[in-house]
Amino acid sequence: xxxxxxxxxxxxxxxxxxxxxxxxxxxxxxxxxxxxxVDLDADENYLVELHGKGGQENHEDADEGIKLHQGMRFxxxxxxxxxxx
Length: 85
Prior knowledge:
Number of helices: 1
Helix content: under 10%
Strand order of the largest sheet: 2-1-7-4-5
Structural class: mainly beta
Shape: globular
Number of strands: 7
Low-confidence stretches: none
Largest sheet: 5 strands, mixed
Mean pLDDT: 90
């Protein structure tokens, strides 16, 4: 029987945020934790998950857990309303 310390460490997966690649071992991270990777505050920013051919999904709740998988892509968005000139 194997001991817990004999279990191999989980392999990291690659995700992309704003074009930058990150290697993470966690399989679920919150929006706030993902934003921390790019040094952004969840009070001022949120994530947009990019899907295939132009689809996207907003993740605005900082405490939302996102199940990560290899190759996920996100861009960040500012919570402040755009100013009209």
